[in-house]
Amino acid sequence: MTVSSPLKVLRLDIGADQSRDLHARSEGQLYWLEQGAIFCRSDRFHWLTAPRQLTWIPPGCQHDARPLSTVRGVLLHLREDLTFVLPKEPVALEPHRLLEATLLRLIELCPESDWLERHEHLLQVFLWEAREATPLRQRLPMPHDPRLLRMANSLWRAPESNPGLDALALEYGFSRRTLTRKFMQETGASLSQWTQHAKLLRALELLAANESVSSAAFGVGYQSVSTFCAVFKQVFGMSPGDYKRRFLNR
């Protein structure tokens, strides 16, 4: 039995690019990379996707996906009615072996002109396995409040800066206590936790662009490479050098 395909696959082979305005699509999107890295942002999160990771972007989600280097992989467009089992927010996922194998098989089958019932069964397995995949920790929440968002964007653009809490409160018109409380309410993290994570994400960008570990450390405001490496390993479970070798220089 043949039916219309609920899945479309676009092969990616593109170079580094600039950010664009946020935009949305009616279908869900899944990025799967074989080489390179993509920096993604939505109106709520910033994150990075590296090889052998999945990025899920739900239907209607305002987003931008910017290659940081030469990228090869696939972009899957998934019909909206099949996305209900997947997360309602964008997320990067670490696929396990069954999920990866199912995905690769779907990619092989998709160019066929007829979408068979057995393909549908395989897609359902993929969707349910994707639901169980482990979310990666490199997602940075962004606040809603306009002043907090301006502050967060400023810290994001200048990761090497280390303004104190009092200076930020004065610049953006908060009391120290209000800034601390509102930022925690809107991001789920303290300002110091958020700033540290923002620095690490910016460091991932630099590593993806083939910067050295020391350049990445100093570029995001660390005074000590060893401290940077220790914090990086605590958050991502591997050293910056291992991350670069494993994901970004495959």
From TrEMBL:
GO terms for molecular function: DNA-binding transcription factor activity; sequence-specific DNA binding. Residues 165-246 form the HTH araC/xylS-type domain. The keyword Transcription regulation applies. Keywords: DNA-binding, Transcription, Transcription regulation. InterPro entries: Homeodomain-like_sf, HTH_AraC, HTH_AraC-typ_CS, RmlC_Cupin_sf, Tscrpt_reg_AraC-type_HTH. It holds the Pfam family HTH_18. PANTHER family: HTH-TYPE TRANSCRIPTIONAL REGULATOR NIMR, TRANSCRIPTIONAL REGULATOR-RELATED. This is AraC-type DNA-binding domain-containing protein. It comes from Hahella chejuensis (strain KCTC 2396).
